[in-house]
Amino acid sequence: MRAARALIGGSFVGPVVLDLSGGRIRRIRPATGEEDVDHDIADGVLTAGMLDLQVNGSFGVDVAAADDAGWRTLLSGLATRGVTAVEPTIITAPLPETVAALERVGRARAAFADEPVARVLGAHLEGPFLSPARKGAHRAECMLPPSREHLDVLLEGAAAREALRTITLAPELPGALDAVRRLSGDGYVVAVGHSDATAAQVHAAGDAGATMTTHVFNAQRPLKPREPGVPGAVLADDRFFVGTIVDGQHLDPSVVSLVLASAGRRTVAVTDAIVTAGLDADRWCDFGGQPVANDARGLGRRRDGTIAGAGIVLDEGVRRMIAAGLDPSAVLSACTENAARSLGRTDIGHIAEGALADLVQWDADWHPSAVWIGGRSLVVPAR
Q1: Along the 383 residues of the chain, how does pLDDT read in single tens digits?
Q2: Are 237 and 202 in contact (CB under 8 A)?
Q3: How much of the chain is in helix, strand and coil states, percent to nearest 5?
Q4: Model's pTM, two decimal places?
Q5: 349 C-beta neighbours (distance < 10 Å), count
Q6: Contact residues for 196 (Cβ-Cβ < 8 A; gap 6+)
Q7: DSSP letters of 159-222?
Q8: Going edge to edge, which strands form the sheet with 45-48?
Q9: d(Cα 238, Cα 110) in Å, to the nearest integer?
Q10: Is the dihedral of CA 347, 275, 378, 15 positive or negative?
């Protein structure tokens, strides 16, 4: 495979040749133009496949309740849009329902592991250990303190333990710092989110092992001149990756630009996509036990107007950010390399020797025109 431009190490470089074998990138070398290649990307750019670490659903599928057919719809649909790996996200629900949803994510990861669809990286559990003061679209009546007893219930079964990858919690809650130490010590990514924490409490969570932020600026104590709140704390603290919704509506693109300027390669672009992502406006679906639909701008809302999540897929977020004037290499790095580093992964999200050959070719309008998963080419629907 030859590419005139490829995103490697946060910058566009090229021309380069990628030698693929066994589903991986075996060698990267400068192109001379004389190579005999099976795919030549003369226009557009090549990147690693995107990772979306906060996807509650898409295409009419809610990950918390998806069956096999739903998982196939979700994972194949995301893949053709350039999202080659995903953390299915489960929002606040009664604890037994949460455990059951985690187990379903684990089964889906196993069932689709060898298929050319988006890879299931593990579940992102967003709740129930959140602050009712910053509940957003979550059900406050289902929220719980992150006590040892509640964690024991959550992690009692091997299937749920193995399915979990990331957990969002509010570090100011009673018992939260002990929970952060326990969870991070067990290898989970702990994210600060849906939180009314002060900056000092956020830094304490970092001391305990938290390394991620869930949708910065949204559903958290805001940045103020004499109290940095959650956003100020994580932007200033190099220990935190900064999850940032890039639909252009949860955050104005100028705010995303500020996050990129402050956090740089710690910025992780996400959608917070919900069941309505990819659907037309005013098509009502169930999400978290309540109805939700996209508005005319493609933003998922409850009937009372509360924002419930994004109604877009990550490739649309890329286009919106680039159209707003943000640097394409920074935006795409936030979707690929930065996201992978936040999980400690070097085998995905990177164009690098030894990495999996999960790749996306982007056309001049920043639409995916070709996608490969493990070196296998997908059929990308024509626009």
Answers
A1: 999 999 999 999 999 999 999 999 999 999 998 898 989 999 999 999 999 999 999 999 999 889 999 999 999 999 999 999 999 999 999 999 999 999 999 999 999 999 999 999 999 999 999 999 999 888 899 999 999 999 999 999 999 999 999 999 999 999 999 999 999 999 999 999 999 999 999 999 999 999 999 999 999 999 999 999 999 999 999 999 999 999 999 999 999 999 999 999 999 999 999 999 988 898 999 886 789 999 988 899 889 988 888 999 999 999 999 999 999 999 999 999 999 999 999 999 999 999 999 999 999 999 999 999 999 999 898 87
A2: yes
A3: 30, 25, 45
A4: 0.96
A5: 27
A6: 131, 133, 134, 170, 172, 220, 221
A7: HHHHHEEEEEE-TTSTTHHHHHHHHHHTT-EEEE-SB---HHHHHHHHHHT--EESSTTSSBPP
A8: 11-13, 6-8, 45-48, 359-362, 368-373, 376-377
A9: 34
A10: negative
Distance, CA of 54 to CA of 59 (rounded, Å): 15
Rounded to whole angstroms, how far apart are CA atoms 102 and 121?
Answer: 12
Both structure tokens of 163: 């399915």
Residues in the chain: 383
> 10 Å Cβ neighbour count for 33?
8
Structure tokens at 14: 């090229």
Distance CA 91, CA 125 (A): 6
On whether the CB atoms of residues 125 and 95 are closer than 8 A, the answer is no
**What is d(CA 285, CA 368) in angstroms, rounded to the nearest whole number?**
27
HSE of 192, CA atoms in CB hemisphere, 13 A: 38
The distance from CA 143 to its chain's CA centroid, rounded to whole angstroms, is 23
